[in-house]
Amino acid sequence: MNIVAISGSLRKESFNTRLLHSLQSLAPAGMTITPFDISALPLYDQDAEASFPAAAQALKDAIAAADGIVIATPEYNRSISGALKNAIDWASRPYGQNSFAGKPVLTMGVSIGKLGTALAQSHLKQIMVYLNARVIGQPELHFGPAHELFDGSGTLVDQAARELLGKALSVLAERIA
């Protein structure tokens, strides 16, 4: 099972990127999780679809080749980041060539607050449903406060979070099978 993992944060020390990097050690046998860096994507511009940017095409190709997608979103102003929305827009275009259609998608997120990224994930799930992705609703994966979950080197050390993430990856594997 080939899984593409997208972090909606561009920050170098992003907790959401750290969360994605922790997944490989929690993945069930036969699952490979490959992070995709969205920082090189230009801002979406429909005029650019005629000569599709290489970075956007690489994202579309990675999603098309994947058996499933994991998205870790930060919460910016009670929604997803502009960087993540931009990546989603590129991957779902041009019209009729939506790379998310039919793909199982697992959402998650971590923040410094106790609510985690619950509101951002709600918006993300709405977008993914519209794009005809097969969104996994349970378990919900919004973690916080982030500084209690990771050690100084960025390793996910919270055992309850590790167990819940392992369970969620098993659900993703079941949806792919």
Structure notes:
The protein has 177 residues and is an alpha/beta fold. The protein has one domain: Flavodoxin domain (Rossmann fold, 3-Layer(aba) Sandwich), CATH 3.40.50. 35% of the residues lie in helices and 15% in strands. The chain has five helices and six strands. Strands 1, 2, 3, 4, 5 and 6 form a six-stranded parallel beta sheet that branches. Helix 3 links the parallel strand 3 and strand 4. The longest helix is centred in the last third of the chain and has 18 residues. The termini are close together. The model has no long low-confidence stretch (mean pLDDT 96).
Give the helix/strand layout.
Blueprint: E1 2-7, H1 15-23, E2 32-36, H2 54-65, E3 68-72, H3 82-91, E4 104-110, H4 118-130, E5 134-135, E6 142-143, H5 159-176
Parallel strand pairs: 1-2, 1-3, 3-4, 4-5, 4-6
What is the gist of this entry?
The protein has 177 residues and is an alpha/beta fold. The chain has helices spanning 15-23, 54-65, 82-91, 118-130, 159-176, and strands spanning 2-7, 32-36, 68-72, 104-110, 134-135, 142-143.
N-to-C CA distance? 9 Å
CATH topology: Rossmann fold
Mean pLDDT: 96
* Number of separate domains: 1
What general outline do the C-alpha atoms trace?
Answer: globular
Helix-strand makeup class: alpha/beta
Relevant terms:
35% helix; Rossmann fold; 177 residues; 5 helices; 15% strand; alpha/beta
